[in-house]
Automatic annotation (TrEMBL):
Transmembrane segments: 132-155, 167-188, 208-229, 241-262, 282-311, 332-350
Annotated compartments: Membrane
Assigned keywords, A-Z: Membrane, Transmembrane, Transmembrane helix
Keyword set includes Membrane: yes
Organism: Biomphalaria glabrata (Bloodfluke planorb)
Primary subcellular site in the record, as a coarse category: membrane
One function term, GO molecular function aspect: G protein-coupled receptor activity
One Pfam entry name: 7tm_2
GO biological process: cell surface receptor signaling pathway
Primary gene name: LOC129924384
Name recorded for this polypeptide: Adhesion G protein-coupled receptor E2-like
One Gene Ontology CC term in the entry: membrane
Origin: domain of life: Eukaryota
Topological relation to the membrane, as annotated: Multi-pass membrane protein
Domain G-protein coupled receptors family 2 profile: 130-359
């Protein structure tokens, strides 16, 4: 923590002692601070001073370097300071008083206000129903994916090039969903939580890669003339695509780990501090939403090309087919669309509209 040369201080024992709500406390402290906090020319910020009864410091010695959590008790609410960017804005003097920058308190109290406002929108019953539906949908999806993989394993005739790609697509999605469910029931912060966070990020990116591979192979079938492949060619092609599928997740996860390692001077890895996933909402947008959005747009383009090719062939065949012949074109379109992941666009837009990615 930074040692400041403070020469003035504020006693906050008598500030806002009334029973204010979480929403009112921000206004209360802001108004009082403006009246009694003075900026010293030797300091880098205006600040308030708290005595030992108003704060608590917890140091996790198991981490290297130790993780520090400062909890400030304002009677009607509490705020926690854990991030490095916030810890440099506080100081414990020789008398064990805690000096905290006003700007930091303003921001933390605003976060408390925003959290309380969000909680009001999410009623207990509604949240319970949402959680149950989410869990139920996850379980249904996992069961369907297991049945899909079992079907491919039981019938070798299905394990063509496209079939093997679909197996990896199903397996990657299954792994990502299971990892996400585990992360939801793992406490943070912990080493296990960090590992699960890295694995969850990696597996979802791996699934996005297989979405792209399947879509790319789909459009190749309708645009490139390819002969029959023997078993050796199929095995070689499978290993080639499998190796290529790891490029995106390895590069992105490595970039996140490296960035957080250097920006935190080795203290943080960017995963598992507040949740068993990426800590920074900005990095979620850059390393998850952005690749997903780009890959999905490319996949949709592949799908439209395939649809056009099928339509062109179907139009040429219409002169030779009887009018009573069944038309399975729409069924084919629906089946092909499942490998593109186009519905991820809805999820990305929902995240942007709800301000969960960039805050």
């Amino acid at each position: 923590m930074t040692i400041f040369n403070f020469t003035t201080f504020v006693d906050t024992e008598n500030l806002c002692t009334e029973n204010f709500t979480n929403v009112d406390i921000v206004t209360c402290f802001e108004s009082d601070m403006k009246n009694i906090v003075y900026i010293n020319e030797l300091t880098s910020c205006s600040y308030v001073r708290l005595n030992t009864t108003q704060y608590q410091v917890v140091v996790d010695e198991k981490a290297v370097p130790p993780n520090v959590t400062i909890t400030i008790d304002f009677k009607v609410t509490k705020i926690k300071i854990t991030e490095n960017r916030d810890l440099i804005m506080v100081n414990v003097d020789t008398n064990e008083n805690l000096d905290v920058c006003v700007a930091l308190l303003d921001r933390k109290l605003k976060e408390v206000k925003d959290t309380a406002r969000l909680a009001d929108h999410c009623k207990e019953t509604l949240c319970m129903v949402e959680n149950i539906l989410t869990l139920l949908c996850f379980l249904i999806s996992i069961v369907c994916l297991l049945l899909t993989l079992l079907t491919y394993c039981m019938f070798p005739v299905l394990r063509t090039n496209a079939g093997v790609n679909n197996m990896f697509l199903s397996f990657s999605l299954l792994s990502a969903q299971v990892s996400l469910m585990i992360s939801a029931y793992t406490s943070a912060p912990s080493i296990l939580c960090k590992l699960i966070g890295v694995m969850t990020h990696f597996l979802w990116l791996w699934n996005f890669s297989w979405n792209f591979i399947c879509s790319f192979n789909m459009v190749r079938v309708f645009t490139v003339s390819m002969g029959m492949n023997n078993q050796r060619d199929m095995t070689h092609g499978t290993w080639k695509w499998l190796s290529g599928s790891f490029i995106l997740p390895v590069l992105v996860v490595s970039a996140v780990l490296t960035y957080n390692h250097f920006t935190s001077q080795g203290r943080e890895f960017g995963y598992g501090n507040e949740q068993c996933y990426i800590d920074s909402p900005l990095l979620i947008g850059i390393t998850v939403a952005a690749p997903l959005f780009v890959i999905t747009l490319i996949n949709v383009s592949f799908f439209l090309v395939a649809v056009y090719k099928i339509y062109s062939v179907r139009r040429l065949q219409s002169d030779f087919l009887p009018s009573t012949a069944p038309d399975f074109t729409m069924t084919i379109y629906i089946k092909l669309s499942t490998v593109t992941g186009m519905f991820w666009i809805v999820a990305v837009l929902a995240e942007f509209s709800d301000n969960k990615i960039f805050g």
